[in-house]
Amino acid sequence: MLLSMQSISKSFGGVHALRDVSFQLLAGEVHALVGENGAGKSTLIKIITGAHRPDQGRIELDGQPLADLDPLSARAHGIAAIYQQPALFPDLTVAENIALASQGGKRSNWIHWNCRRREAQTLLDRIGARIDPDCEVRRLSMPQQQLVEIARTLGANARLLIMDEPTASLSQQESQHLFGLIRQLKQQSVGIIYISHRLDELPQIADRVTALRDGRIIGTRPIAEVDRDELIRMMVGRELSTVFPKQPVVTGDVALELKQLACRTAGISDVNLSVHAGEIFGLAGLMGAGRTELARVLFGITPASSGEIRVRGKSIVIRQPSDAVAAGIGYVPEDRRRHGVILEMSVAENATLAVLGRLSRGTLLNFVAERAQAQHDVRRLDVKTSSIETPVGQLSGGNQQKVALARWLATNPSVLILDEPTQGIDVGAKAEIHRLMQQLVSQGMAILMISSDLPEILGMSDRVGVMHAGALVGVLSRESATPERVLALALGPVSGNPAA
Amino acid sequence: MNTHSTNSPNSLDTPNSWQMTFLPRYSRELSVGVVWLALLLTLAVVRPDFYSSTLRDTLIEAAPLLVAAIGMTLVILTRQIDISIGSQLGVCGVAAGLLAQQHVPMPLVALAVIALGALLGAFNGALVAWLRMPSIVVTLATLWIWRELLRWLRQGKFVNGLPANFQWFGLPEQPSIGGIKPGQWAIIGVALVIFALVACLLRWYRPVRAVLAVGSDQEAARLAGIRPPRVIFATFVALGAMVGLAALLTVVQLPQVDPKVGTGLEMQVIAAVVVGGTAISGGRGTLLGTLLGVGLFATIGTSLEFLHIPTHWNQAVQGGLILLAVASDALRRKPASD
Predict the structure, then answer these.
(1) In what helix (H) or strand (E) does residue A148 lie, and over which residues does it extend?
(2) CA distance A339 to A331
(3) Residues of B in contact with A131 (CB under 8 A)
(4) Cα-flanking dihedrals φ and ψ of residue A194, to 5°?
(5) Beta strands A3-12 and A15-25: pairing type?
(6) Residues A212 and A34: beta-carbon distance below 8 Å
(7) Of A40, A206, A316, B139, which cross-links A32 as Cys (Cβ 3.0–4.6 Å)?
């Protein structure tokens, strides 16, 4: 037994990320970890690498308890991780990045650059990457950075290796090369935790698989005993207990129509969809499938490179967010605390930020009108705040989200894009946001809702679009959308036997 | 010279020739070096007498600036800043004078002011690294506090009656090499030794190398097992120690110590570091760039004075250079961002 975790629990601000999780890894084993977005995989690996501390539970390595694990001591114990987002230093060269990481703790503090450059080259050769060790990392493409991250982690000579979606941006050939390497590492009795959404590749390399759902372990099975459908069932098989307030609304004309929309920088290709007034269109997909990127294209943050956007039948060109606002599009972004609201500013200032033009005479702001608008919003959305002068940072997550919504509702948009509208907020506030969405569509607004919360997608949407690798791969009606169907589409097409 | 392309058969996917990786990476050092060289050549043609004495003054004046700028480069590389160094230098300079006045041996004076500087730096560093206070605000506060403390303690009085071994470390007038006396050589030499030492550490010594990692991406550094607060604290302490040394190198040039010594030093030093190519956003920069930046600024200062151009033009030229440097960064970066 290389690693044994017992009854690990971890919560972030009242939200349980992991509950009573026990997990074992043998030396020389490749143990796959699967689960939906937010199932707790990332939290689990961050606890193993010491980036997060568990609230409860015990971790043992080789039977020895590990207490007070931090990234430095985890490294000294031979634990290394390849993160999904490469944690590289953009301003340093490839060789420098690899050299800084391979510091196992016992090595000399002096760096021999020629030696290191050779070492970097050897590591890059081992994974079959053709990358110049003297190139600065910020000049590399995403897949190249992923390869550097893999090389760097190999250089650490770990006994326990964690790979979080290592093949997400790799080509078929590079992936096969990596699998060969994983088999070699197994023979050197390295224990590997392998996270992937590409379920088809798991039988090629994994020995066992553990499914996580909502922060709990659902089960651990030998990989030979489960097939793709069984895995999907383990990942989603939850009872839809929450009651959603969604009621059918008579839909009106097409409010938003996308024709062959593409954006090369955002990796979006050929999206065709239409959303009617009075309709909630849910957009599902895995992390990195291109949902948020699509929203950013629609809102003009990364303008489209080709295709057409029509709002209420009129073809419009969106080059910057102000064009989108003028066309009647509102966007409540995913990262509420960074982009949705300005934490230091008051409720009133946040709520009226998008409509200051209307509330001003010339360039002077009409404070009476601003206050009136803010009072109106607070009442309408039932924002729980001591006053409209309270800084938004002091409100709860749910109420911050309502303020973010209020800002866009004040512009009277015909299309509202909600990116993860209820992420990280408590159940009560979640229900209120859902009721509000129902109210808005019954008034004739069209809502495009991006969500990683599958029950929310299924419970609130009139239709569900599923994205995979920057493309819209399917649209399901409310009746035909089941968790299994949505997830099967999101995981991408079943690939043929790659060895063939 | 062309060692960068030895791996070429294996490196089809990335630019790897000397022109593609070396030139963009060191373009700032090259351009600052070329500008400085051009200025020196112009002076050689227009006013050869610049080289008779003014160049010497330039080098001696630049030496303490260089020492402080080396420390400042480390701090800016971690994405922090210290604007209190002028006052730190004042405190350390006056302390050096007072100790020497009490006939403390000069080597002990040197150790004492370096330790005092490190202590002042540690105060800033602790507030920034562990209390996570913004460094610009912390050091703005200490800039005023140390300066006012000095004013209150000294009431504007110079430190006089210094022993003979204070000015130029008591080294003899002869033999002078190239018109530079032994005491002056000592000052320039100390600065160059510090430069070579820190440049080597920054390249080959892992704990110092971590400075670049922290400035490049703090979270990535943490995940790589580096402790960013420690690194940030250490850079402030190192800067303080170097400012202490710079104070000694400054005050030994005169027979008495002015309590206003070091006023405005922070801006000169930050300007030289930024023009030398160190990114104010951290992670990127070299000490060679800092050396060239200090040299260029010092030469501009003394040559304008030498040419009898009013001193306020000096600052205007320096300001223009800073804008030029930052603008070239912004233009170079533009295509990289979306």
Answers:
(1) helix A142-155
(2) 10
(3) 11, 13-14
(4) -120, 115
(5) antiparallel
(6) yes
(7) A206
Q: How far is A152 from chain B (nearest CA, A)?
A: 10
Q: What is the ipTM of this complex?
A: 0.70
Interval A338-348 mean pLDDT:
82
Q: Cβ–Cβ of B205/A89 closer than 8 Å? A: no
Q: Does A109 touch chain B (CB under 8 A)?
A: yes
The answer to whether A87 contacts chain B (CB < 8 Å) is yes
pTM for the full model? 0.74
Question: Would you call B223 and A49 a contact, using CB atoms and an 8 Å cutoff?
Answer: yes
Residue B19 reports pLDDT greater than 70: no
Q: Taking Cα atoms as reference points, which of A237, A170, A302, A175 lies closest to residue A484?
A: A237
Opening angle at CA A385, ends A379 and A389, nearest 5: 95
The DSSP-derived string for B201-248 is: HHHHBHHHHHHHHHHH-HHHHHHTT--HHHHHHHHHHHHHHHHHHHHH
**pLDDT of B180-214, one tens digit each?**
888 899 999 999 999 999 999 998 888 888 899 89
Which pLDDT does position A97 carry in this prediction? Answer: 86
Please identify which residue in the block is written with the tokens 């004042």.
B90
Sheet (strand A208-213) strand order: A79-82, A160-164, A191-195, A30-34, A208-213, A216-222
C-alpha distance from B19 to closest chain A C-alpha (Å)? 12
d(CA A164, CA A43): 11
Distance from CA of A239 to the nearest CA of B (A): 37
Of B84, B83, B94, which is closest to residue B150 (Cα–Cα)? Answer: B94
Closest CA to A220 of A232, A229, A207: A207
What tokens does B308 get?
Answer: 């009898």
Answer whether A113 sits within 8 Å of B204, measured CB to CB: yes
Per DSSP, the residues of A27-55 read TT-EEEEE--TTSSHHHHHHHHTTSS--S
Q: Which two tokens stand for residue B194?
A: 């510090």
Question: ∠ CA A344-A345-A349 to the nearest 5 degrees?
Answer: 170
The alpha carbon of residue B5 is apart from the nearest alpha carbon of chain A, in Å, by 9
| H-state helical runs in B78-168 | 85-101, 106-129, 135-154
* Interface contact A173, partner B, CB < 8 A: no
Whether the predicted pLDDT of B243 surpasses 70: yes
Report the largest interatomic distance among the alpha carbons of chain B, rounded to a whole angstrom. Answer: 70
Cis amide leading into B175 (omega within 30): yes
